[in-house]
UniProtKB/TrEMBL annotation:
The keyword Hydrolase applies. InterPro entries: Glutamyl_endopeptidase, Peptidase_S1_PA, Peptidase_S1_PA_chymotrypsin, TRYPSIN_HIS. Keywords: Hydrolase, Signal. It comes from Streptomyces ochraceiscleroticus. This is Trypsin-like serine peptidase. GO terms for molecular function: hydrolase activity.
Length: 336
């Protein structure tokens, strides 16, 4: 994407917001400050109908959110001056199990994995999906995940997949189980998109978490149709984790679900995020990171999302720590 000027990150590579095309839906002014309200049923149907297989295939990925080396000195100075302001608030460890019961975990046959097609099957192939929306008059795409929730209608993604440069994205739909331009489980248009207070106010990369609420399709709620992953908060660092998404920049093309796995690190440079060796590219932002992932069932506890990378540290992905603010966002979404 060109011309982005986030206060906290450089405009090089927005992993999550993915896709530009010549044809676009009408978008609000770039300076719009408030999220769209509940979408009328007619507008939701129009948004779903707009995203044809050809348009979804034609979407080109935006770049991964990136942090350049020159940003680190300023960030270090701010952190030294006010260390409390640069700590992600935590709370008690909490987890919500997946909607479907999990089976005993088999031996880890594909761990660690720096990036490749997911061929293991399981529920992740239906809960994970691509997100499509209009950003500044252009068509764009991200990744997202259906999670267990009270309303059965909650999708988790990255904050910059719902709002960027002060503007909320419009014509937002979630396509679970997307592959090769197909929507095997339908197209779910958002009635509401949300993000953390810190991302909403300053686009703080530590809080790059977003959510969407999608109304029923053909009388079914989202998780009744595709299932829902579990979610977990305050799980700590240095964990075995799996990351999923739909990268669409070379060497990927957005047609398949890709994953990475490994033992994570805690970012000691610009953020308080988790880090993982992973070569996913533009278009994968917002895809889920799981702890306690079971390869046999394809279920786990979502504990982060694909968010950003450093320009000087290739093939490494970072995702925000799910602390108190991510939990509040999840509760707000599932209560909508």
């Amino acid at each position: 994407m060109s011309g982005r000027a986030s206060a906290r990150v450089t405009a090089a590579a927005l992993l999550a917001a993915g896709t530009l095309c010549a044809t676009a839906l009408q978008a609000p002014a770039a300076g719009a400050a408030e999220p769209p309200g509940a979408a009328a049923e007619q507008n939701a149907k129009k948004a779903a109908a707009f995203w044809t297989a050809d348009r979804m295939r034609a979407a080109k990925p935006l770049d991964l959110l990136s942090v350049a080396r020159k940003k680190l000195t300023a960030a270090a100075a701010r952190a030294a001056a006010a260390p409390a302001a640069h700590t992600v608030p935590r709370g008690k460890k909490a987890a919500v199990p997946p909607t479907l019961p999990s089976l005993p975990s088999p031996a880890l046959k594909t761990f660690p994995q720096p990036g490749g097609p997911w061929t293991g099957g399981g529920k992740v192939t239906s809960t994970a999906g691509r997100v499509f929306f209009t950003y500044q008059g252009r068509q764009a795409s991200c990744s997202g995940d259906a999670v267990t929730s009270k309303n059965g209608s909650t999708v988790l993604t990255a904050g910059h997949c719902v709002k960027l440069d002060g503007a909320w994205h419009t014509n937002w739909i979630f396509v679970p189980g997307y592959h090769d331009g197909q929507a095997p489980h339908g197209k779910w248009a958002a009635s509401k998109t949300l993000t953390t207070p810190q991302w909403k106010a300053k686009e703080d990369i530590n809080y790059d978490v977003g959510a969407a609420v999608v109304p029923p399709v053909d009388g079914k709620r989202l998780t009744d149709a595709v299932g829902g992953q579990g979610v977990a908060f305050n799980t700590g660092y240095n964990k075995k984790m799996y990351a999923f998404g739909y990268p669409a920049a070379a060497p990927y093309d957005g047609s398949k679900l890709i994953y990475c796995s490994g033992v994570t690190i805690k970012d000691s440079l610009f953020s308080k995020d988790h880090g993982m060796a992973c070569n996913m590219t533009g278009g994968s932002s917002g895809g889920p990171w799981f702890t306690k992932f079971d390869e046999k069932t394809g279920t786990g506890l979502q504990s982060s999302v694909n968010s950003f990378g450093y320009t000087f540290l290739p093939n490494t992905m970072f995702g925000p720590y799910f602390g108190a603010d991510a939990k509040n966002l999840y509760n707000e979404a599932q209560g909508s």
